[in-house]
Amino acid sequence: MATFPPYPTHPSEPPGPGGPVGGMRRPAPWWRKKWVRYGALITLLALSGLVILALVREQTGTEGFLVGLGLAVLPVPLLVATFRWLDRVEPGPWRNLVFSFAWGACAAALIAIIANSFATRWIATATADPSSADTLGATVIAPVVEEIAKAAAVLLIFLFRRRDFTGIVDGVVIAGITATGFAFTENILYLGTAFGTDQFSGDSGLASVTAATFFVRVIMSPFAHPLFTVFTGIGFGIAALSADRHHVRRVLLPLSGLLLAMGMHALWNGSSTFGEFGFFAVYAVFMVPAFGLLTWLVLWTRQRELRTVRDELPAYTAAGWLTPPEPYALGNMKARRLAREYAGHQFGREAARSVAEYEAYATSLAFLRHRGRRGRANADFVVRERELLFELWRRREIARPSLAYAAQTTAPMPGYGSGYGNGYGYGYAYGYGSPYEHSSGGGYEYGHEHGQGCGHGYEYASAHGYGPTAPYPSYSPYQT
C-alpha cells in the first residue's frame, strides 16, 4: 500500500537538489534578493549593538563596562555548548544560532532597556510613587517586554527558516541561545553598575556588591533567562509539529508558551518582595523543579528523535538509498560519533565533516518522512525529500563504510558476516561491494558480497559500489 504518491523515477545520474523546473522564472525584485535581506538584518543588528553598547557604557562607565563584560562572558560558552549539545541529533546551521545570540544581545536588549525605562518613568510620573513604579516595572513590565523581545527571534526563524525548525528541540535551542545573548548584555549592565557602586562605597572582596551580584546572576542562576524563554521555544516547537492546516493550534501554542515564560519571569523578578527568604524559596520551589522538568523533557525528546530515525530510515534501505546498518548507526549517538572519528582518522578532517553532514541530512530525511506519514507534510514534501536524498547520495562514498564500522562496533548483538540480509535491524549480515546491481526486472537489487580491502575491509572504488558509476536508485520509499 502506498502512503504517498510514488516517488519520481530518477535518471541514472542525479540531477541538482531541486531538479529542473519547466519554464522560465521571472527574476525576483531587488528587495527580495538574499543579499539585500541579509544586509538589512546585519545592519539592524549592528546598529542595535552600537546603541546598546553606548547606553550600557553611559550607565556603568568605561571601567565598570569592562569589568562587567569580563565577568558576564564567563557563563556564555557553557550555555552555548549546552544548547549545542542538545541539538546534536539534527544540528541546526550556525547562522541561526549566531542570529539568535546577536538578536538577544543587541536588538532584544535594546528594546527592553528603552521600553522598561520609558514605562517605569511613566508609571512613576502617573502615580507619584517612584518606589512602587520600580517594583511594578520589575515584576510586570519587564517580564512582558523582555519575553516578547526575545520571542521575536524565535518567531523570525520559525517563519523564515522553517526547514531548520522541525520540533521541540529546535525551539528550545533557538530560544535558549537568544536568552543567553540577552542575559549576557543584561549581566554587563548589572555587574558594571555593581562595580561602580563598590567604587563609590569603597567595598571590595567577597563583601562587595559586585561579588554578590556575580554569585546570584552567574553562579546561582545562569540558566534563568534561558529557562523562561525556553517555554516560548517549546510552544513554537510543538506548533512546528502540527500540520499547516491547524492554524488555530499553531497560533495558540506559541502564545501559551509565551505566557508561561512571562509568568515564570514575573515570579522570579518578584521573589525579592516575598520577604527575607523569598528569593531562595522561589529558587528552590519553582526554578529548580522547572529546570529539572525541562531538562528531562528535552532529553526525552532527543531520545524520541533517535527512535524516529531508526524507525523511518529502513524504508530508504529497502528502496536502495541506504545500506542495512545505517538506520541503526544513525539512530545511535555513540555510533554517529564513532563514524565521524573513523572517517577523520582514516581519511582526514574533510571526510569527518562529510560524515557529519551525511548524518544531519539523514536525520532530516527521517523527520520529513515521519511528518509525512502523520499527515503533517508541507506542500514542498517531494522537493525537500529529493534534495535530501541527493545530498546523501553525494556523500555516500565516505559515509557508508564509516557508519558500517560504527554500527559493527556499537551494535548490541554483532552478528556481521558477508552479504546482505533481509530486512533491517541489528546484527544483519552485510558486506561492501556493488550495493546495487541491475536486475532483469528493471529495478536494482542488492548485489555481490565483498570483504576485501585495507583497514576494516572497506574500499573506495567504483567497482565496489561507491564510485561515480554506481546507478541512482529508482525505487520509491512509499511503494511496496
Envelope shape: elongated
Strand content: under 5%
Q: What is the residue-mean pLDDT, rounded to a whole number? A: 80
Low-confidence runs of at least 5 consecutive residues: 1-13, 19-23, 414-480
Biggest beta sheet attributes: 2 strands, antiparallel
Q: Give the structural class.
A: mainly alpha
Please bin the fraction of helical residues: 55-70%
Number of helices: 15
N-to-C terminal Cα separation, in Å? 6 Å
Q: Gyration radius, to the nearest Å?
A: 27 Å
- Counted beta strands: 2
Order of helices and strands: HHHHHHHHHHHHHHHEE
Strand order of the largest sheet: 1-2
What do these coordinates show?
Strands 1-2 form a two-stranded antiparallel sheet. The chain has 480 residues and is an all-alpha fold. The chain has helices at residues 34-72, 76-86, 94-127, 130-160, 168-201, 209-220, 224-240, 247-269, 278-312, 314-318, 326-330, 333-347, 349-373, 381-394, 396-410; strands at 437-438, 444-445. The protein is elongated, with a radius of gyration of 27 Å. 66% of the residues lie in helices and 1% in strands.
